Each structure stands twice: as structure tokens, then as C-alpha cells.
Amino acid sequence: MTAHRKPSAAAAPPLDDDLFSYYFSFFNDGAAPSAMDPNPGKRPRADDPSSSRRHVFSKPSESSSPSPSSADEEDEALQRPELLPPQPQQQQRRVWVRDRSSDWWDRYIDPELPDIEFRRAFRMSRATFDFLCDELGSAVAKEDTALRAAIPVRQRVAVCVWRLATGEPLRLVSRRFGLGISTCHKLVLEVCAAIRNVLMPRSLAWPDSAGAAAAAARFEALSGIPNVVGAMYTTHIPVIAPRVSVAAYFNRRHTERNQKSSYTVTLQGVVDPDGVFTDVCIGWPGSMPDDQVLEKSALYQRANSGLLNNQWIVGGTGHALLDWVLVPYAQSNLTWAQHAFNEKVGAVQRVAKDAFARLKGRWGCLQKRTEVKLKDLPVVLGACCVLHNLCEMRKEEMEPELRFELLDDEMVADNGLRSFSAIHFRDSIAHNLFHHGLSGTSFL
């Protein structure tokens, strides 16, 4: 008989601890067929000495039938269970969960931790973080199961906020919070979806008539231009080169500046005088110019339907002059009045640029190529905008080292003049700024 050779241990590939969150081991009563048995369904021979044979089958004979005396003993044993031989206990299925260290998270959840250290880690104070957890609690909470306890709400929210704030790879986030890599990825998407569904309708919305009037008054005090209700800017978010329509996401301007191939998606936003977002448009390919991104947005459709009646949104040179979009003069050899107008429009647009700089500085995931798939990216970017609004509304301080410089390389729109009435209004505003002493003297 040929002896079975024990398989070599080198045949099994090593497991990467960072790629597996849980290890499962199931134990059942029945013995599984041996992998070394060439025919597991074949009845084993009675004289087979192999240890892999679990049962020995023999032909029943008359001598094997119970005798009367043995039958009486069996009846007595049934009446007296203590006489029965001990039966092996059924082995239940067990689940083995990999033990991970959560010392880092336990330190930050400690109430004794200084608030300034908590703010540096999560880009918000502990009070704002607690407010966020209270608002999202019912949407992200899970119940305990028979296998394991549910992850607490505070830890779920913290995983998402830390990931958005630092942009750390999921492998490192997993080690910090003592959770699996796939679990952390799932938590980020779940919490971002909850932020979109719960907080976005309340904290990122177009102002009502009273709010628009208040914004117009503050913008006019800043620039001297009446009826301005928002400042608009479009930035680019780096992404990994997609497999489909890769040319559409190729960003030529970033590629030339960085000396390496860059792929981006666009993020267009309108902000109020406080730098709070009132409208966002997320996810169009990075090769699309700013004016085309605006035409694809819901804001463009609503504005053309009468949302902005006798009101202005200040854009940049990449946008076109429309009946409701005010942009600076782009031609050379500007007049004194046109210089004055560009200076004041630039003051309004700096509000939007500063808001985007704080957005990218506070949420570091926007500065580097993300691991999120394109289909999930709008939810993540939208959550960043909502969290930005939450921090701005609650007057959260931003650390000086988090300041970010925007480099989006705006380009002049191909057709920057699309409304003759807007041309007349812009010239009239420029004339009033210059001849009524509202233009300043920096260009003189």
C-alpha cells in the first residue's frame, strides 16, 4: 500500500494580514472527505489500516443480532440513563475574529484629551464632533449581533472624519481604529451617505429671499457692486486614471505644471459672504472647462428659469458673461473704469477662492488621488462640503499649517460674451464704480 505523503507547508501562499479583516473557522460534526482520498465516495475496505477511514463496514450476520439478555440490559439502560455510556457533545460552530489594537482611538476618545489636540486630529472641536454624532446617530447606528458587538456611532463617525481630514490610506486608518480595511472603507461611504441625506438639505441650500438680501448687502459693502448674492469658483480633485473615458479626465494644465500625468474631476461651488457653500456641482471630468461645467449644473437650469431675478453671481475668467453671471473684463488694454471693475470683482471672487482653500486645507483627501471609485466620489466630495459648512457656521478655527494654495490655472472662456444686456449692465456698473469714487486707488 502506498503511504500518503503529507503536503508541503510551502505550497500554501502566505496571508497578508493587512488584506483580511476577519478569519473564520467552522467546525462541524461530520468529517469532510479527505483531500488525499482519490475517491471519497467509495466504501472503505474493512482491512484498510489508514487512519483516514472513519468507519468500518461489515456484512451483518446472525451472530450480530442482540441476544435476549443483551436486550434486557438495553431496556434497563434506557430506564436508567446513568447507565448509558457518555455521549460526545455536539461541537458548535465558532467564529474567530482577528484581535486588533484600538489604543490610538481609545486615547482620542478619552475626555481628558486636550481639545486642541482633538481639533488638530479631526479638524473640528470635540463639541462640533459630538454635535455631528448626535445628528447622524439614528442614520449610522447598528445593532449588536450574536457574533460580535456593533461598532459605536462615535467610532463610525470618527473613522470617516479622520479619513476625509488626512486622506490616509485605508491600511493606516485600519490600524489606528482597530478595524478591518474593508470595514473602514464601508464606514466612510456609509457616514458620507448619511451626511448627504441628513445634513445636506439643512446646511447646504440656496438662501431664501431674506438670506439673499442679507448676502447682497454684505457683498455690496465689500465691493460696491449691488445685487451680488454669491461668488462662484471651480476647482479640480485628483483621481486615479479611470478605465473608461480616460481622456475626458485628463487634465492638461495640471499635467504641464506637475510634469506628470494628472486626472481630475471638477468641483464647482457658490459661496455666501461667510464662505459657506450654497450650491455645488460635483463630478464632471477634468478636461471640461469651467463654462461648460456651469452649463451642466442644476444651478444653470434654475437660474435660466428665473431663480436669480435681477441678481448676480460673480464668476472668474473661465466663466461666460450671462444675464446672472458677472465676470471680469478679459481683453487687454483695459480702460480705467474696467480696471476698477476688475478690482472689485476680484474682491468678491477672493471670498470663493478663500473658501475653497479652506475646504482643501481642512479635508486633506481632496489634495491627493483618492481610493474611492468614481461612482462614489460625488457622495464623498459632497460630505466634505457639508462638513466645511458645519465648521464655518460653528466658527471652527483652522490651524495655520493647514493653509492650502489653490492652483487651478483658470483659462479664459472661448465665448466669454453671451448676453448683450449683461454687457450693458457690466459697463454701467464699471462706470458707476469709477465715477462715484468706489473703485479704490490700487490701479492708479
TrEMBL record:
Keywords: Hydrolase, Metal-binding, Nuclease, Nucleus. Residues 31-96 are annotated as: Disordered. Its cofactor is a divalent metal cation. GO terms for molecular function: hydrolase activity; metal ion binding; nuclease activity. Residues 233-389 form the DDE Tnp4 domain. It is found in: Nucleus. GO terms for cellular component: nucleus. Residues 60-70 have a biased composition (Low complexity). The keyword Nuclease applies. Belongs to the HARBI1 family. PANTHER family: OS01G0186900 PROTEIN (PTHR22930:SF270), PTHR22930. This is (wild Malaysian banana) hypothetical protein. It comes from Musa acuminata subsp. malaccensis. The lineage of its organism: Eukaryota, Viridiplantae, Streptophyta, Embryophyta, Tracheophyta.
